Amino acid sequence: MEKxxxxxxxxxxxxxxxxxxxxxxxxxxxxxxxxxxxxxxxxETRRGRQLQSGDIIMIDFADEPVSFExxxx
Length: 73
Fold this sequence. Notes:
2 helices; five-stranded mixed sheet; 5 strands
């Protein structure tokens, strides 16, 4: 599984951008509002949701879902 590393606090929208799956904040917001983003197996619709080290994010892309884990450095 892919891992995304961060130094300080990180929110869901920021993690999507940091991972490279969302090119900008607007795209991250749209993905989250469309219900395509899962946090630890459950749909998450709050872009500002604070993440913890070890959280698993899954994006349900039409062609193939992708998952990554956020890890605090």
